[in-house]
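Translate sequence into structure tokens.
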Amino acid sequence: MRVLHFFKTYWPDTFGGIERTIHAIAKGTRQYGFESDVLSLSDQPEINTKSFDGHMAYKAKLDFEFASTGFSREAFRRFKELSAAADIIHFHFPWPLMDAVHLLSRHGKPTVVTYHSDIIKQKTLLRLYRPLMYRFLGSVDRIVATSPNYVETSEVLQHFRSKVEIVPLGLDEADYPQVDEKTMAGWRARLPARFFLFVGVLRYYKGIHVLIEAARKTGLDVVIVGDGPMRAELEEQIARDRLTNVHLLGALSDGDKMAVLDLSRALVFPSHLRSEAFGLSLVEASMRGKPMISCELGTGTSYVNLDGETGLVVPPSDPAALAAAMSTLSDGPERASQFGTNARARYEAHFTAASMAKAYEETYRSLLDSPRGDFRQTA
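Result follows.
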């Protein structure tokens, strides 16, 4: 059986959250007899195709971007070619071009959509896009949400509740390099003895400015790993407040990132807007047995990090509450250690790539076994 994944970006070694998820699904479901192709866009003049971990990554030429949405005329042709050979089409939402390609191609194949996030930022454009979005979601056979929390708080998912399934995102430890003692020693010499850690792209919804303010209030060391559009603004905040306890490292390789995570006392994930739908950095922390601090957004962050069990959950955009949580873990190392133990157990029970792949295998087989149109509905 062949599955075609369709999303705007996908390329080995440059994975963001959704791209890492697609890779894990493609790699994990292969053992159940599902071969995968992934179609995405490229802004390079040459169009590349590459075999990666047993599946093919295809590219269509990116023509232009508007409101974080890539557009491509070639995507229609490439999708038609690849979907003809596929048994199942697996979309990854949101991406408006994908909706149009699906509806215009009339491919007639069973369809599943992994619903990664509501559209939050582009509220004005959402009003124009909503009819297409509802038609697209109404036409597919299954919608997969990544946490029960998100289903309950998403107006869109509630509209299609009868065909929504829940499959949490998962990570495979084997996809991360082993951290050698030389790497650990190098970072141990470079970093403070005890520090809180943030890992992620420096985007507007990550709440890093709140974390920096909490660091100012507590004086506790904070290490920030990642790069992105907010970096200059965050550097300005650090300089303005003359903070010597905030360390901005930039982007790191997976090996270095895991070393820094292992050395940290806890992961702080201060995302303050609903654009943060799940938080794979929280899963990485759970995988390494680290306690966590996150914010209550009504999304998957509070499904990964259970308040009082794997860490602490605080209100969003509240530096005082975040500072208090950091102080609690700093002053209570035994409690923090127990949170970390519980986090590792929760990872093993819910967030492995193997469990995610098995769930998608069951979804794929149910699609192939079900009469066409059983789960479709009009908006």
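Note: The first strand starts at residue 2 and ends at 6.
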